[in-house]
Amino acid sequence: xxxxxxxxxxxxxxxxxxxxxxxxxxxxxxxxxxxxxxxCDGCGRHLSQLKPFGRAGDPLVGDFDGALLVKNFRWDAHPxxxxxxxxxxxxxxxxxxxxxxxxxxxxxxxxxxEEAEGMMFYHQLSNQLSKSRECRNCICLSTKRxxxxxxxxxxxxx
Length: 158
Fold this sequence. Notes:
The protein folds into 2 domains: about 5-70 and about 130-155, no CATH class; about 80-125, no CATH class. Helices cover about 35% and strands about 15% of the residues. The protein is built from 4 helices and 6 strands. It has helices at about 80-90, 95-110, 115-125, 145-155, and strands at about 5-10, 10-15, 15, 30, 70-75, 130-135. Strands 1-2-4 form a 3-stranded mixed beta sheet, with no helix packed on it. Strands 3-5-6 form a 3-stranded antiparallel beta sheet, with no helix packed on it. β1 (about 5-10) and β2 (about 10-15) form a beta hairpin. The radius of gyration is 20 Å and the shape is elongated.
């Protein structure tokens, strides 16, 4: 894996963090910069507590050659099959703003304003990605387990 994914015209994007030096902001614009606190976005452990990724052949997930944190992208919410079916039923054939407004009205009629808006919001979250920096223990977790760990770390939830 390339440590620097992109570096041009004072724009930098690091793919991995190998140590404290990588946490310092580079000049210009840093796309998806490493966490300033040097902690894994999943388990919250600091760089100093992490075991490095291995080289090619590491049974884990690839060639990260000694990196401590690796940039990963995860869905913002775990997809819910039932909500996906409902959204498909109401919005599957939408091809214009007018169609969308009609579909939304029908969804609200069937489920009520609050539940319909909640489903639409959750559906939106489960269809967008966000960047995270993960250690070798967290990068292999399913999205559901990763966010369960993250919630317990930040909010004390089980």
